[in-house]
């Protein structure tokens, strides 16, 4: 059994978020060191504020300021902070009910150790030095034994509101293509294209997935296909794709390698783009160090008859 | 025991646009849901369950819409389900909701689908850097363009057919206040002169990238009797799936699409879809998919679909209007696009499509597909209740 390949797969993207009126006011408030909640029809004050009442589904827009001081309602000690968390040293995750609020806000509490944290502990906001209109404008909470701070009665209207934020997302995987594709990839290193034949329908899958998606049975019999094949259909790409260093126009084609049960995709070169046609016979062109063929070029053979590839478009 | 008849009594959608920067995702879905409730003259407390659909998670980075959006949709304390089937998800979402009513699990269900393409990048979501694989060489249009060429080869269609579809759909969109694109100065010559992006697909033959949401209120026979406006009745609904790639896959006319349509027609008692169905709202993200789906859905013999387009049959005043709303070519909030098709079919049989109303639309098909032409969902709605 060949070695099964694996490699890191990192997916990250900076999603943008339009905030809408309530989140816009809340985050702009944090920038101005003002904490806003929203009042429900029955007089509760929700902090952080939400756009719609979780009980009645009513639209909520009545913003009210609450104090930057409050009480811990529950907590959990974080022994080993991870990158990107609010504090670099061990801290407590806390739910804090700010004075004037009926619900609690999740944040970090900077405390010397778990023995100094308890439910009922009085705390206050430690503001970040630089504030942009984000939840991180609250650097963290800290223990506080003074009197409850008085809100200023802010209306929730700001001159220069934050209307959108960027929320980067990142996922770290260890990816493995599995046994069948690993064998295929290892054969590619020797410039051979190897698929697997389904024991039931006898079709050859390239690249193989280890099972036939039509018959639902495992595949194991390895079959070398190509290297020559037929262009079964194609398009001419006239717009440059991001991250692709290919001069346009170029031809992106479906290529049925001889012996394969379905077409794979590749670029056609070595012929003017406007002379590529369905049925063109091609062969792979390899470049040093690349895992896959760089492109396919005409073999010079007569074109394949449509009937020989019409099931392989 | 027979199934409970399912009626559409409320329809709501947002004005689809390139970017709705004024609302959060919660605000966007709320707007569509509120309009559907208003149309049905119902309140949040009349809703027994919520079924929500959206595009694949990577498209907009919202992994748990059922968690994030429960309070915006009045779903707290009620069952809330999320449906996943790539681009067809809007259709599948409505069918899951309809199943809950048909099975008498719930009486009145709110179903909703959305997408804010402006907050993300669908092309990034479609081209993740999977190790050891060759990057996708051509983008979304490049994925579909070879299938269009295959259709042209198979059918012998003249290469102008795609531009006729785009010209028709963009003109229909001018009559639909919710459509994203309102190209008042559109001409056939402009469509035909637009840049060739992925030959044979031109720029004007592709769909836009939109923000939008769509919602329906589905209910039972008793709920329909109380409805303030005529309901649309579901006569049939089905979903089918197949793998993205397999030996023998027919991208031009996928088996799953044909089987799905046949199932819907059997349920609805449709013997000849061309004769028995008055209009079709189908998922056409690239213009050539109109003739392709006309064949796949049984409105024309194989290789003949383009003749319906070319002869004007699919025009708004034609014998079989297709994409009266302007279609996906005129608004594409991907996660919502399938449900917008289903909603348009219902609007037509309710006689509430406004300027793009088809006269005497008694039975209309709504169609959605997604993934690599692998997920299909369809429903047939009628102006009268089903007979059995």
The helix tally of chain B amounts to 14
Question: How much beta of chain B, percentage-wise?
Answer: 15-25%
**What is the overall pLDDT average of chain A?**
95
Biggest sheet: strand arrangement of chain A: 7-6-5-8-9
Low-confidence stretches of chain B: none
| Strand composition percent of chain A | 35-45%
Secondary-structure element string of chain A: EHEEEEEEEEEHEEEEEEEEH
Radius of gyration of chain A: 31 Å
Head-to-tail CA distance between termini of chain A: 33 Å
Per CATH, the class of chain B reads: Alpha Beta
Structural class label of chain A? mainly beta
Kindly describe this structure.
Chain A has 313 residues and is mainly beta. Chain A has two domains: 7-170, no CATH class; 178-312, no CATH class. Helix content of chain A is 9%, strand content 36%. Chain A has three helices and 18 strands. Chain A has helices at 20-31, 178-188, 306-309; strands at residues 7-18, 35-39, 45-46, 62-66, 69-78, 91-98, 105-109, 122-127, 138-143, 164-175, 193-197, 204-205, 221-225, 229-237, 250-257, 264-268, 281-285, 295-298. The radius of gyration of chain A is 31 Å and the shape is elongated. With 388 residues, chain B is an alpha/beta fold. Chain B has a single domain (7-122, 208-382), classed as 3-Layer(aba) Sandwich (Peroxisomal Thiolase, Chain A, domain 1). Chain B has helices spanning 25-40, 57-60, 65-68, 89-102, 122-126, 139-155, 161-173, 188-193, 221-226, 255-268, 273-276, 289-296, 305-310, 334-350, and strands at residues 7-13, 49-54, 80-83, 108-116, 196-199, 201-202, 211-219, 232-241, 279-281, 363-370, 375-382. In chain B, the strands form two sheets. A nine-stranded mixed beta sheet of chain B has the order 3-2-4-7-1-8-11-10-9. In chain B, strands 5-6 form a two-stranded antiparallel ribbon. Chains A and B meet through strand 1, helix 1, strand 10, strand 12 and strand 14 of A and helix 1, helix 6 and strand 5 of B. Strand 14 of chain A pairs antiparallel with strand 5 of chain B, so a sheet runs across the interface.
């Amino acid at each position: 059994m060949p070695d099964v390949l694996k490699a890191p797969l990192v997916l990250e993207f900076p999603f943008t978020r339009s905030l809408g009126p309530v989140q816009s006011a809340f985050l702009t408030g944090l920038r101005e060191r003002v904490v806003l909640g929203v009042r429900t029809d029955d007089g509760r004050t929700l902090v952080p504020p939400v756009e719609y009442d979780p009980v009645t589904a009513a639209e909520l827009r009545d913003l009210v300021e609450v104090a930057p001081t409050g009480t811990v309602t529950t907590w959990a000690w974080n022994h080993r902070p991870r990158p990107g968390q609010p504090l670099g040293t061990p801290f407590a995750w806390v739910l804090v009910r700010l004075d004037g609020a009926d619900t609690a806000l999740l944040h970090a509490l900077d405390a010397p150790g778990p023995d100094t944290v308890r439910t009922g502990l009085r705390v206050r906001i430690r503001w970040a030095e630089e504030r942009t209109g984000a939840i991180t404008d609250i650097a963290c909470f800290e223990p506080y034994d003074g009197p409850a701070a008085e809100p200023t009665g802010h209306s929730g209207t700001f001159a220069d509101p934050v209307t959108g934020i960027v929320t980067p997302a990142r996922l770290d995987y260890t990816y493995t293509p599995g046994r069948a594709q690993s064998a295929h990839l290892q054969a590619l290193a020797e410039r051979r294209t190897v698929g697997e034949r389904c024991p039931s329908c006898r079709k050859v899958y390239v690249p193989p997935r280890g099972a036939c998606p039509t018959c639902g049975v495992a595949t194991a019999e390895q079959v070398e296909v190509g290297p020559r094949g037929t262009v079964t259909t194609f398009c001419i790409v006239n717009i440059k794709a991001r991250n692709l260093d290919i001069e346009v126009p170029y031809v992106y084609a479906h290529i049925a390698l001889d012996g394969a049960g379905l077409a794979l995709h590749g670029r056609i070169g070595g012929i003017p783009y406007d002379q590529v046609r369905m049925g063109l016979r091609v062969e792979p062109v390899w470049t040093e160090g690349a895992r896959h063929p760089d492109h396919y070029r005409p073999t010079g053979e007569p074109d394949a008859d449509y009937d020989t590839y019409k099931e392989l478009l | 025991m027979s199934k409970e008849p399912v009626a559409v009594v409320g329809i709501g959608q947002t004005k689809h646009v390139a970017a709705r920067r004024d609302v959060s995702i919660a605000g966007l879905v709320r707007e569509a849901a509120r309009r559907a409730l208003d149309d049905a003259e119902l309140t949040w407390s009349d809703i027994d369950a919520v079924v929500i659909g959206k595009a694949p998670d990577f498209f907009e980075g919202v992994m748990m819409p059922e968690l994030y959006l429960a309070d915006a949709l009045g779903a707290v304390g009620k069952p809330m389900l999320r449906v996943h089937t790539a681009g067809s998800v809007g259709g599948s979402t409505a069918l899951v909701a309809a199943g809950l009513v048909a099975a008498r699990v719930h009486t009145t269900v709110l179903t909703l689908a959305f997408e804010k393409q402006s907050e993300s990048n669908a092309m990034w979501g479609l081209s993740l850097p999977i190790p050891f694989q060759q990057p996708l060489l051509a983008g979304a249009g490049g994925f579909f363009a070879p299938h269009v060429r295959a259709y042209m080869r198979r059918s012998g269609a003249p290469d102008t057919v795609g531009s006729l579809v785009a010209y028709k759909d963009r003109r229909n969109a001018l009559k639909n206040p919710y459509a994203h694109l309102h190209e008042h100065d559109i001409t056939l010559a402009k469509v035909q002169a637009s840049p060739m992006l992925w030959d044979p697909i031109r720029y004007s033959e592709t769909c836009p990238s939109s923000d939008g949401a769509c919602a329906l209120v589905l209910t039972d026979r008793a709920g329909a009797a109380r409805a303030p406006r005529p309901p649309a009745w579901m006569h049939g609904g089905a979903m089918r799936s197949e793998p993205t790639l397999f030996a023998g896959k027919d991208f031009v006319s996928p088996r799953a699409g044909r089987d799905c349509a046949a199932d819907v027609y059997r349920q609805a008692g449709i013997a000849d879809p061309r004769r028995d169905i008055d209009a079709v709202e189908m998922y056409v993200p690239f213009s050539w998919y109109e003739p392709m789906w006309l064949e796949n859905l049984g409105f024309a013999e194989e290789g003949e679909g383009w003749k319906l387009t070319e002869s004007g049959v699919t025009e708004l005043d034609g014998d079989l209007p297709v994409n009266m709303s302007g279609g996906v070519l005129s608004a594409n909030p991907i996660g919502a696009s399938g449900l917008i098709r289903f909603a348009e079919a219902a609007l037509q049989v309710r006689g509430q499509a406004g300027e793009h109303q088809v006269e005497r639309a008694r039975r209309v098909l709504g169609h959605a597909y997604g993934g690599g032409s692998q997920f299909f969902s369809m429903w047939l709605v009628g102006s009268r209740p089903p007979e059995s």
